[in-house]
Every structure is written in structure tokens, then in C-alpha cells.
Amino acid sequence: MKILATRPERCTGCGACEIECARTWFKVDDKEKSRIRIFPPAKEGQPFRIVVCNQNGACIDVCPTVALKRAKNGVVQLNKSLCVGCLSCVGFCPNQAMFYHPDYTEPFKCVACGKCVDVCPEGALYIAEVADAPASVTDTWLQKEAV
Amino acid sequence: MSHHIAEMKAAHRLLAEFTYEKHPVQRGYTNRTLYINLSDNTIAGKPVSEEMKEKFTGGKGFGLWLLWHGIRDTTKWNDPENEIIISTGPIGGITTYPGTGKSLVVSLSPLTDSVMDSNVGGYFGPYLKFAGWDAIEIQGKAEKDVIIFIDGDTGRITIEEAPLEPVDTHLLTDILVQMYGGDDHHARRAISTVTAGSGAQHTRFGCLNFSWYDLRRRAARVKQAGRGGIGTVFRDKRIKALVVKFSDLKADSNGPADLGRLQRVGAKMHKEIHDYDDQQCGMRRHGTSYLVGIMNDYDLLPVHNFRYGSHPDGHKIDVKVWDARFTQGVPDGCWYGCTLSCSHAVDGFVLRTGPYKGQRVIVDGPEYENAAGLGANCGIFDPDYIIEANFYCDTYALDTISVGTAMAFAMECYEMGLIDKRATGGLDFRFGNAEAAIEAIHQMGRGEGFGAIIGQGVRRMKKIFAEQYGADPKILQDIGMEAKGLEFSEYMPKESLAQQGGYGLASKGPQHDEAWLIFMDMVNNQIPTMEDKAEALHYFPIWRTWFGLCGLCKLPWNDIVPPDNALTDEPAKIPEHVRNYVEIFSAVTGRQVTSEDLLLMSERVYNFQRVFNLRMGFGTREHDKIPYRAQGPVTVEEYESRAERYDKQLKALGYDVEKMSTPEKVAALRAHRESQYEKLVDAVYARRGWTKNGVPKVETLQRLGIDYPDVVEIVRRAGG
Predict the structure, then answer these.
(1) How many contacts does A have with B, using Cβ atoms within 8 A?
(2) Each residue of B79-125: pLDDT tens digit?
């Protein structure tokens, strides 16, 4: 499956990826609405911190409405019509890569579209092919007969 | 929809129909309540005044206020004018914070004959509000079984005669979710039902089952409004079910004033649970069942009708056993966004007894109270029995706590020879006899035999055993674990004076939702003096009442704590979580409140409920008494089982225990402990602003702003 992968050591914190992401998905220049976030180094000499979904799927099993599912290409997608905006996935994402904004009732995440890769001047972002994630507990349940 | 469900639906006869205009919820309120009278099939809306919101907040507050105006002083639980009121509260139904989908149910109780409240999860309360109603108030009695359907999608309410559906919950819920929700699973989650069962018809401790929908198992599941017999009132009114439909749930369905503020505090809380639940209570892994082993270790697990606090077989029903049986692999919450997720279930359990023998079922739970009450308290340490008994209690709609405590009492009476097989109809009702216990539960479902006697509750059993079998009323009083007519919940209060007060002084009867002080008192030694205990018995019941006004679950307040909580000034209050609740209330309602404001909301309703008890002929000091079994060792055998502990206490009091016989020591300890309880009651009443007789003073009502003429009149008559 493909994911958005990062090379933090190359990141200069210019924020072009955040702006491009917000433009692509929300049609605005607001970094608070980006699905990728860049944080300054915690200490001098350390790289910028790039926070973005790695499609590990931890959110799938905490969603009470089964609105989060892994698509055929391996990317975890949120079905907004099923989502009730509880933000369980936000609190339970091990990478803190699920985001929300008060303008929207549903959270949002990276779907590895690659738009940010195109605008990163340093090559700090790229689309990588990785091994498929194991099936979630939710998938296992949904493959069973209805109880 | 299957053929047989279509047939049941076709048999419905429309008795009344009401259409209404839907409005979006505004800042947590719809500003109207739904009134239904089943005697004449009235369906009507009532406005919610600003006064009602300001003084009674919502949830239990609305329930008490509506009931107060709906009944007379002389109304009995089975009079048509008794009501069942269900209301969530202004925060109820938000999805962004854990534990925000509770409903509060209020009615006159068949057990206590006074006002009762019971809280429950599931989707009903929030969906009812989003359908357009802050509360539903049901009065009157139907002639034949009815279903009330509130369609929040179209704004239509119907009362339908429903002759064919079975009444037991596991069957009925499944049928109704399909009947009203259709075949699509996501459409089924738009349905929530309230049902009872055959046991609710034949006992006084019937419960109500509120449904939610498990999208992974693709099955409806239920939570219980257990305490006080409101399920019995429900069936007495010939209600088969309430059904609500609401399809368009979103994060802003509750109309919050500030969604962003809710999102921030909610996301923070979810992360706290993610980071710390595993190392703290492990609610997500095993729910409240983790408590069994802990209680057993601390000598707090009720064993053999509260004689003892532990048992060598306790480990047979502790968390390891339940962990292995909770097989969903994904923690479940009973409302959206509850990441504390205490709802657990046993899958594919094949029933071994009763009318559904051989059926493969999902069993919700067992939770701590079920394992402790149905199991340890009855001396039964067999997990399969506990699961089976738990299932049947739920589907028959029996309160597992009352069933456990009432059966334990009957078992002790049998073992003491106070009753024999004439009374039990041949059942060998010894502690530990699982076969007899499950048969008694089936008898409760059928309304037959000894089960039907147990189903009258401990208070009435005491009378029956004394009058019909010549049992000594004094010993029955000492060992019958009820107060105000309600059975004790499953925590051993003997060694904690504060917990004795927590039980004895609780408005509705001995349920731990008001004050659970055992650990503060005994383990952490945080409230050593009488004044400390009295302060705790003022603060915690008031604070905990607030959850029931707003549609909240208590668990996310203190079954998870921030990592630095122990370093705060008052760790037992969980200060950071209190601030979260201040945030949530302000964000939903737009009123910028403080933590003191929250306490004032509660103190009003708490005192109003006390006055309501007075109005119904209760609510004074004599009704706050508890049986001695809750306070100390009743028998020589009990004393000797913990002789070292009790001897030490007597020595500290100046007794020369070497020269005393055990009966003398029992009597000396009893005199001391009973006088301590009375001193505690004095101190708590004073702290609460009540008279020595437990009556709220007029000045207290004035301070709280609930000095309505009729309320003051009742208090004055009682010397307040």
C-alpha cells in the first residue's frame, strides 16, 4: 500500500505542504486546516517534526460508527456521512495525525494524495510503497455473519 | 424485514397520532417536553420555561419537577397518575466527550413508595432530544399493550396497540430495531428502544432496558435503568416499548454555543484515556468487572448476604475470568464518543436453562455489580452461572442488584432456619446453590413460587417471613439489606462509616451513585474526622447529582485521572476533570459558569428531592436508618471471622476484651458503631442545612432559590 513518507532531516519548516494541503481539500490558505502539520524542532539541532498519517489504521477500531475504513489502495478513509464527529480517532491516533477544526463537524486526515510532495522544495516528502497493514478487528467482525 | 416481523407490525392498531414541527436543538435544549397520557391517548407538547432550566437544569431535575406537578401527595406507584419521565439533560447527546449519552428516569417506586431516579446509557435520551423533546412524561395506563413511537425524522408520534411481540427484552429489542429501522445496519443505529420484560410484570424490581446498536456485531445491545422498579411501573402502564428514531446525528446536533471549545476538551480527554486507561482502571479492556478482585482483596466484596467482605473462591470470578470471555476485541461505548468504553459482552453464550435454553445469545456484561450481587453475595463463584443469571435478569427486566441482594437475604434466612422448604417451595436455598438461584430467577419471570416472593424485595420479604413463618423480626431487620425499601448495592460498608452514610443518607435508597467513599475513607484515609466525613457526604452527593442533571456518566470523571492528579490539593475531586465539565457546560449552553455554579445546580435539585420524599410521607431521620449488617457484625460467627480487627477497635475504646465473651463484644461494638452512625447523621444534616430530623430548613431552600410556596409549606409542616 502507499503512504506519504517523510525525510524530516530535509524539512526547513517552510510550510508549503500545509498551505497546499489546505488549498487542495478546503480551498483556503489556512494551515490549521491542513492534514499535514510541521512543528519546529524541540531542541536546536534536531529536525522539524512532520506529523502526518502513516495509514497504520489504529483509528479504525475506535470509530463508533465504522466510518473509518481502509480503502483498496490501503489508505484509511473517513466516510463523512457516517461520522458523528466524536473525535475518538483524534485522541487515539498514536501519531496525533488526525486533525479537527471548529469550522467542521468531522475530523480530517492525510489520504496520501501526494499534492504536498509536488510543492516541497527540499524533497522532504515522498509517496512510498510499504507492506499492507494487517486486517483490523473491525474488518474481522464485518466479515462474519451478522450475529 | 422478515415475514414474522411484518406480521407483528401489521397487527398494530393506531390509537393516537400527533405531528409536530421540528426545531434544531438550541444550546442543549429543545425547550419543550412531550406529555403522553395512556388512559385517554393524549399526546401533547409542553413548554420548558427559563425558570425550569435555571432551577432544575435538566435530566433528573426535569424529571422531579414534572413528577412533582403531575401527581398528588397520596399517589401510589400503580395509580394511573404516577408517571415515568425520561430526560437526558443539556449536555446529553454531545459526541465529543466520553460518557455523554445518559438518560435519567424518574417515577414513584414500587419498592420505596417514594420518588425514584435511575440512570442509564444507550441512545434513547439523546435521540429523544434530537427528535425535539427535552423529556418524555408518560402518565395513565393503557388497556392493552402499546408501543409509543417517536419518529424524529418526520416529526410524528404514534401510540400503537401492539399485541403480538414478545415482551422479553432480547427478543423484543431485536424485533423493534428491525421493524422501525429496516434492513440497513446504519439505519438501525438510528433506532433506540426502551423495553422491560416478563420479570418486570411479576416483581417490584423491574428494570428498563435502553438500547444502542453495535455496528460490528450488527446487533442491538442494552443498558439498564436498574434501580427502584421503574420497569415494573412501565409494565403496569401496559407499555411494551418506547421507540425513537433519529437519523441525522452530527457533532453539532445538540446545538452547542461553541463547538470548537467542545472539540478541544473532548480531544484532550480522549488522549488522556488513550494514554492512561491501560495503566489505571483498564475500563476499555474489562469494564467495571476489574473491581471484583480488588474488592475481594480489600475485604469489601459482599459475600453471603454481606456477612463477609471476601471469599477464598473470589478469584474464580475476578477480572482474568471475564477478560477471557469478553471477546469483541474492540471496546464499546454505549454512546458515541465514549472512549472509556466500559460496555463489554460475552459472545455466543449458549443458554443452559429456562425458556430460551439452547439459544445462542450476546450477554451484556457482567459488570461488577452483577458478579458481586448474583455471584459472591449469594456464595456462587461460577462464571457460567453469573453470565446466565445476568442474561435472564436483563431479558426478564429484573434489576440485577436487587435480585442479588434479595436472593442473598433469602438464602441467609434459609440457612439460619428462619424459613424452610415450605417457604421456598422445595428449593434448597443454600448459599452457593446456583441451580436453585437460577430457578428462582425463572420463577420471577413467570411470577410463580418462591421467586415471586423474592421479587417483592427485602422489605416485604421480612414482613412475609415474620407473619407467615414466624421468623424473628429483629434478626430479619438486622440482616435484611435494604433501606427506604431499596436493596443495597454491592459494596461492603461495614468498616467505613462514611460509606454507611453514603448508603443511608442517599435520597432514593442505598445505591452508591451518590457517594462511594470506601476507598477515601478506608484505604487512603483522606477523611479521618467526623467533620471530614460530613463534608465528603455533603460535597460528593451534590457533585455526583450534577451528572444526572446534565445527561452524563460518572465514570469519565474519576475512573480515569490525569497523571498529575495525586499532586493536586484535592485529588479525590479530580480538579482537572471538574474544569473539563465547567468547559463543556459553558460550551454547550453559552453560560459562562464556574465549578461553584455546577454545585449550586445540584444542591437545588438534591434538596428538592429530599422535600419530595417528605411530601410522599418519607424523608426524615427515621428513614435514613440502615440495618446493622451494614454497620458491623450481627452474629458471633461474623465477629469471630474478623476477631482481630474488632478486638483492636474495642481495645482502643478502652474495653478489656480478654474478659469479654463474644456476644458481649458483639454488643459493645454495636453500641459504639450505632452511636457513631447517629453522630455522623447529625454532622451531615448540619452541613447540609437540614434540621436534626433531616428536614431542609426554610432558609436553606431560600438560599437555593427553591422556596416555592408548596415546597416551603411541606418543609414547615415537617418542622424545617
Answers:
(1) 97
(2) 999 999 999 999 999 999 999 999 999 999 999 999 999 999 999 99
Phi, psi values for residue A144, rounded to 5°: -80, 165
Q: What is the 3-state secondary structure (H, E, C) of B424-456?
A: HCCCCCCCCCHHHHHHHHHHHHHCCHHHHHHCC
Q: Which domains does chain A have, with CATH numbers?
A: 2-143 (3.30.70.20)
Dihedral over Cα of B70, B71, B76, B78: its sign: negative
> Mutating which of B130, B178, B188, B216 best tests the A interface, going by the most A Cβ atoms within 10 A?
B216
Nearest chain A residue to B329 by CA distance is A137
- Mean pLDDT calculated for residue range B261-290: 95
- Note the pTM of the prediction, 2 decimals: 0.97
Q: Is the pLDDT of residue B444 over 60?
A: yes
Query: Within 13 Å of residue B189, how many CA atoms lie on the same side as its CB?
Result: 19
Cα dihedral B180, B185, B187, B190 in deg (nearest 10) = 80
List of chain B residues whose C-beta atoms are within 8 Å of the C-beta of residue A32: none
Low-confidence ranges of chain A (pLDDT < 50): 147
Residue B350 sits at the chain A interface (C-beta within 8 Å): no
In chain B, % of residues over pLDDT 70: 100
Region of B255 (left: φ > 0; alpha: ψ -120 to 50; beta: rest) is left
Average pLDDT of chain B?
A: 97
Chain A neighbors of B336, CB-CB under 8 A: 64-65, 84, 86
Q: Measured between alpha carbons, how far is A86 from A106 in angstroms, rounded to an integer?
A: 8
Spatial separation of the C-alpha atoms in residues B38 and B142, rounded to whole Å: 5
Q: Is B663 left (phi over 0), alpha (psi -120 to 50) or beta?
A: alpha
